[in-house]
Amino acid sequence: MTTDFKLLARDGVARRGVLNTAHGPVNTPAFMPVGTQATVKGMLPESVAATGAEILLGNTYHLMLRPGAERVAHLGGLHRFMNWSGPILTDSGGFQVMSLSGLRSLDDDGVTFRSHLDGSSHRLTPERSIEIQNCLDADITMCFDECTPWPATEAQAAHSMRLSMRWARRCREAFVDRPGYGLFGIVQGSVYPALRAESAAALTALGFDGYAVGGLAVGEGQELMLQTLDSTVPLLPTDRPRYLMGVGRPSDIVAAVRRGIDMFDCVMPTRSGRTGQGFTRRGTVNIRNARHADDPRPLDSECRCPACRSYGRAYLHHLFRANEMLGPILLTWHNLAYFQDLMAGLRDAIEAGRLADFAAAFEHREAEGDLESLVAVDAADDEPVERPDRGPDRGQGRSQNRNHNHTRNQDRDDD
Ligand SMILES: [Zn+2]
Fold it and tell me: Do 110 and 226 belong to one domain?
């Protein structure tokens, strides 16, 4: 055990804690912005920090192919390379090997694959993945595993999970303990409670600095995901952080925190920010929508980010319509700030013992949606050609797009 995790408060099974790493503390529950290629797209590191983010996620697969793990090590590690002085968690590369690379062959020892960049041949094993993450100087290293595809039969999921558990043992043996640096195991087993229990038992017997729940947000939908958390989280040690990989939508995060999850990552705030989707305290808003063209109000009147403090919806709408790069930059900044504000709200609520009230208020406002502005601009909007464009706002992320968004490539991916 080389990273220190302190629990500060509990509300039911929800936890408020601090994970101390070599590059500083992480207040939990925490959301990790995704910095796939040694950058959170469109954001300066100091801007990311200004949103309240304390830890970033980096992608082993991308960085091993370009610029190369050993090159990053020679340049002083990923923190210095990308000018981020805070903690970094790296994934193991396993997920992208399966989802991005071309020809690949999986055997009990590891995976051989071709780069999606130039077709060159590479091999990842548990030992090499740990070595790469060490080159990157990751504060939190993830075990190399196979993210079980969805859907999978119980037999397929068992085979895949047991392979990942054999690899977890090899990762544990390959990882060199250093103060402030931790190794997390990953519970697999798809949506089968008995397999999740077997996986959790195998990992806790080995002993890790934290425990991730993997193989979710791959298309199973929120209900099955939460059922799986209900059966899995109680099996994990209470004194170690728990990380739900690749999740998720704000409603997923609130629901998972209530079930005892401490850490999250997702491409959603950054990727959606680049395509014009904003997350607000009243649900999701498509800023490209014609109803914003004359609206001088901020995207989210309660948000403290630069996009909301200094610019109106009409300007953001214009930037996206004109394909100006400032549009994605401002909306990415806003979305990251929204996610961090949500986490701060959850942490405060747990400390105050009023998480249930917080969750109820969150659900109420998300369900209510951005209706106020729909009503306000309805009369003025006389451009029939734009009307089909008005649709995407109305679902507000409650029922619409739920399953659509729980796809392998949207939730659990690199960015
Ligand atoms: Zn904002």
Answer: yes
Domain that holds residue 242: 4-266
Catalytic site includes residue 118: no
Distance 113 CA to ligand 1 centre (A): 41
Asked if 103 and 57 sit in the same domain, the reply is yes
| Strand positions, DSSP E, 65-167 | 88-90, 104-106, 111-114, 121-124, 140-142
Ligand 1 center to 311 CA (angstroms): 9
Amino acid at 89: L
Domain boundary among 266, 298, 327: 266
- Cβ partners under 8 Å of residue 315, min gap 6: none
Average pLDDT of 221-240? 98
User: pLDDT tens digit string along 257-275?
Assistant: 999 999 999 999 999 999 9
Could you tell me if residue 135 is inside a domain? yes
Catalytic choice (91, 139, 209, 370) = 91
Largest CA distance in the chain: 66
Q: State how far the Cα of 320 lies from the Cα of 35, in Å rounded to an integer.
A: 23
CA of 194 to the centre of ligand 1 (A): 43
- Residue 128 in this model has a pLDDT that exceeds 70: yes
- Tell me the C-alpha to C-alpha distance, in Å, between residue 201 and each of 2, 172, 195, 324: 21, 15, 10, 51
Write down the catalytic residue from 265, 295, 411, 415.
265
Spatial separation of the C-alpha atoms in residues 152 and 168, rounded to whole Å: 21
The pTM (predicted TM-score) of the whole model is 0.91
115 and 228 both lie in a single domain? yes
CA of residue 354 to ligand 1 center, whole Å = 25
Q: Scanning the structure block, which residue is given the tokens 């999978």?
A: 152
Domain shared by 331 and 248, yes or no:
no
CA of 337 to the centre of ligand 1 (A): 6
Residue 87 is assigned to a structural domain of this protein: yes
What is the 197 CA–ligand 1 centroid distance (Å)? Answer: 41
Any domain includes 413: no
Indicate the pLDDT class of residue 370, thresholds 50, 70 and 90.
confident
Q: In sequence order, which residues have a C-beta less than 8 Å from that of residue 345 and are 6 or more positions away?
A: 358, 362
Q: Please report whether residue 410 resides in a domain.
A: no
Owner of token pair 């999970």: 161
Whether 381 sits among the annotated catalytic residues: the reply is no
